[in-house]
Amino acid sequence: MDEAAIRAFAKRFFDAIEQGDVETVKSSYTPDVEIWHNFDDLIQTREQNVETLKGMVGRISDRLYDNRRLEVFADGFVQQHVLRGTRKDGKRVSLPAAIIVKLRDGKIARLDEYIDSAHVAVFRQTF
After folding, report:
1. CATH number attached to the domain at 3-124
2. Which helix (H) or strand (E) is 126 found in, with range?
């Protein structure tokens, strides 16, 4: 993929999460994708990540990836952003993050997500 194609892919991927389109997100991953989070040091499979996304979409409305800063490299990209949304209790929340993505055959083969764990706790809080 060239730089323009990678930029378009990244936009579609994060736009799909904003829109709650979990199937598009799932189809953006290779079957053997590894999704790692710094706050728990665990690697999720595609299916585990899809379940996580479904839960987030159900708990957080008005999702917006704000302040997207995208840098492209030969086989992937790095994006910094702030995910904003509204919890079911009406509280506005934000989640600053940095994502490193490695692509293979036009799909995400590896995604490393760096998030402050204090923000994760507020974002995931249930009521």
Report:
1. 3.10.450.50
2. none
